[in-house]
Amino acid sequence: MGLGGISIWQLLIILAIVVLLFGTKKLKGMGGDLGSALKGFKDSMQGDDDAKNIEKKEQEDADTAQQHTEKKDESKL
C-alpha cells in the first residue's frame, strides 16, 4: 500500500504517463523553475530575518553612541 491507497505500480504508471506527456526536458525545466522559486522564497525569508538583525544592531550602536556622549558630558562637569 502506497500513499493514500495508491500502490507503487499505480504511481509508476502515473509517472510514465507524465513523462510521455511532458517529456524529460520539460520536466527537468519545471523542476529547475520550482527549485529556484523555492530558493528565492527561502532567501527572501532569510532576508527578512537579516533586516531585523541589522535594524537591531543599528539600534544597539545608536544606544552605545548615546551612552558614550552622556559619559563625555558628565566628565566635562
UniProtKB/TrEMBL annotation:
Main localization category: membrane
Membrane topology per record: Single-pass membrane protein
TM segment ranges: 6-24
The UniProt record lists the keyword Transport: yes
Role according to the record: Part of the twin-arginine translocation (Tat) system that transports large folded proteins containing a characteristic twin-arginine motif in their signal peptide across membranes. TatA could form the protein-conducting channel of the Tat system.
Feature: compositional bias, Basic and acidic residues: 49-59, 68-77
Residue ranges of the region described as Disordered: 41-77
Native species: Zhongshania arctica
Name assigned to this protein: Sec-independent protein translocase protein TatA
